[in-house]
């Protein structure tokens, strides 16, 4: 199973569309900023499950009460999804990691910083920030899952995508 992770698109949809078309993911995650962009993706690729959370720029872009944190089991992997602004991820990851560990997840996904990051903590917890899929950079995350385990977690940029045009 391939899980495409996007964040901080800020109304720039072309890179996200290209990722979906090139990678043909089994599911998509959008971690906020702009919530509307994920709604458009969901309409355009209605056959692919899409999970989304709002970001700090989405106050008026999503319905009231939209959860800022989602915890879902996808492909047998427990995933913590948040934009990250409520966890102060621009300063440190401590609050995010604490919450993710308390929820007993396998991977914590966050955005907000526009800085791509993918690593595994000493205790085995995966941490992924796909960076910005908008005009701040054009990066994404790709998680490959097999038999309920993360077998690959990596960052992608425009140059990593196959030429599909």
Protein described:
The protein has 165 residues and is of the alpha/beta class. The chain has one domain (2-160): 4-Layer Sandwich (Purple Acid Phosphatase, chain A, domain 2), CATH 3.60.21.10. It is 18% helix and 32% strand. It has 3 helices and 10 strands. A 5-stranded mixed sheet has the order 3-2-1-9-10, with helices on one face. Strands 4-5-6-8-7 form a 5-stranded mixed sheet, covered by helices on one side. Strand 7 and strand 8 form a beta hairpin. The mean pLDDT is 94.
Give the arrangement of secondary structure elements.
Blueprint: E1 2-6, H1 14-23, E2 27-30, H2 35-44, E3 50-52, E4 69-74, E5 77-82, H3 94-102, E6 107-109, E7 117-120, E8 126-129, E9 139-146, E10 149-157
Features of the shown structure:
165 residues, Purple Acid Phosphatase, chain A, domain 2, 5-stranded mixed sheet, 18% helix
């Amino acid at each position: 199973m391939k899980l495409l992770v996007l964040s901080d698109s800020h109304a720039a949809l072309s890179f996200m569309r290209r990722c979906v078309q090139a990678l043909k993911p089994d599911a998509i995650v959008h971690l906020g900023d702009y919530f509307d962009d994920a709604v458009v993706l969901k309409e355009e690729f209605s056959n692919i499950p899409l999970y989304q959370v709002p970001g700090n720029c989405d106050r008026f872009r999503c319905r009231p009460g939209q959860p800022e944190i989602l915890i879902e089991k996808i492909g047998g992997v427990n995933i913590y999804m948040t934009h990250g602004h409520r966890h102060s991820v621009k300063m440190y990851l401590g609050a995010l990691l604490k919450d993710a560990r308390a929820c007993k997840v396998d991977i914590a996904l966050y955005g907000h910083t526009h800085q791509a990051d993918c690593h595994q903590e000493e205790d085995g917890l995966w941490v992924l920030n796909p960076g910005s899929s908008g005009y701040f950079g054009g990066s994404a995350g790709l998680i490959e899952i097999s038999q309920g385990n993360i077998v690959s977690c990596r960052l992608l940029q425009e140059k990593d995508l196959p030429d599909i045009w």
